[in-house]
């Protein structure tokens, strides 16, 4: 059993710990009352910043050769099913590509559509060697298309200074590469102007 002095010292220390904002005089004043309401202070936990998972850097992607297509895979016939899937995707996107569909509505949807699997042809270019290249788009980057031709050759065609034509169900659309220098993911949110200067 504790003596009255020890008990008093314990209570004083306990109250001081429990009510750190109160002065000694205020605590003594509280002791004269029959009931004591203890204060409770929650310690604020520091907010931990969530670390976003980082993807590979451009250097790491090159080292891992993530975007390289192996030579044995560079065959036109392999990607024909991809083209058929792309055509179905565009038909669903444009609600069937009906004859009475408005061309500018289809054009606006094609500008934002994913072009992987589309067959395109270079119709105009400042570099004559690019004109006439036709094939399936295998990869789209910000500045270039990677196209596989019917001769099983992988061509890297820059968008800048080139005009591409794209045909599906009799509807022909033209892509002006100089105005099309975006990644596929960026294009989906991009607002294209209906009128603008057209140049190579």
UniProtKB/TrEMBL annotation:
Entry keyword annotation includes Nucleus: yes
Signal sequence region: none
Keyword annotations of the record: Nucleus, Phosphoprotein, tRNA processing
InterPro entries: RNase_P/MRP_Rpp29-subunit, RNase_P/MRP_Rpp29_sf, Rof/RNase_P-like, Rpp29/RNP1
GO cellular component: nucleolus; ribonuclease MRP complex; ribonuclease P complex
GO biological process, alphabetically ordered: rRNA processing; tRNA 5'-leader removal
Coiled coil stretches, renumbered: none
Cellular localisation: Nucleus, Nucleolus
SMART domains, per the entry: POP4 (SM00538)
A single GO molecular function term of this UniProt record: ribonuclease P RNA binding
Predominant place of localization: nucleus
Role noted for this protein: Component of ribonuclease P, a ribonucleoprotein complex that generates mature tRNA molecules by cleaving their 5'-ends.
UniProt similarity note: Belongs to the eukaryotic/archaeal RNase P protein component 1 family.
Cited PANTHER family: RIBONUCLEASE P PROTEIN SUBUNIT P29 (PTHR13348:SF0), RIBONUCLEASE P SUBUNIT P29 (PTHR13348)
Oligomeric and partner information: Component of nuclear RNase P and RNase MRP ribonucleoproteins. RNase P consists of a catalytic RNA moiety and 10 different protein chains; POP1, POP4, POP5, POP7, RPP14, RPP21, RPP25, RPP30, RPP38 and RPP40. Within the RNase P complex, POP1, POP7 and RPP25 form the 'finger' subcomplex, POP5, RPP14, RPP40 and homodimeric RPP30 form the 'palm' subcomplex, and RPP21, POP4 and RPP38 form the 'wrist' subcomplex. All subunits of the RNase P complex interact with the catalytic RNA. Several subunits of RNase P are also part of the RNase MRP complex.
This protein's name: Ribonuclease P protein subunit p29
Species for this entry: Todus mexicanus (Puerto Rican tody)
């Amino acid at each position: 059993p504790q003596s009255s002095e020890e008990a008093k010292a314990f209570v004083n220390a306990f109250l001081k710990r429990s009510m750190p904002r109160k002065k000694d005089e205020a605590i003594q004043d509280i002791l004269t009352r029959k009931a004591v309401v203890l204060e409770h202070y929650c310690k604020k936990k520091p907010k931990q910043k969530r670390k976003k998972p980082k993807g590979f850097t451009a250097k790491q992607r090159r080292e891992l050769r993530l975007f390289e297509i192996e030579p044995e895979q560079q065959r036109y016939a392999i990607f024909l099913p991809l083209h058929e899937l792309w055509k179905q995707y565009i038909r669903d996107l444009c609600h069937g590509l009906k004859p009475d569909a408005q061309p500018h509505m289809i054009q606006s949807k094609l500008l934002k559509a994913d072009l992987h699997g589309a067959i395109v042809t270079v119709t105009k270019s400042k570099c004559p060697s690019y004109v006439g290249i036709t094939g399936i788009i295998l990869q789209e980057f910000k500045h270039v298309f990677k196209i596989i031709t019917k001769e099983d050759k992988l061509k890297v065609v820059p968008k800048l200074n080139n005009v591409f034509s794209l045909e599906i169900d009799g509807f022909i659309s033209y892509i002006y590469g100089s105005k099309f220098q975006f990644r596929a993911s960026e294009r989906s949110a991009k607002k294209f102007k209906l009128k603008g200067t057209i140049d190579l």
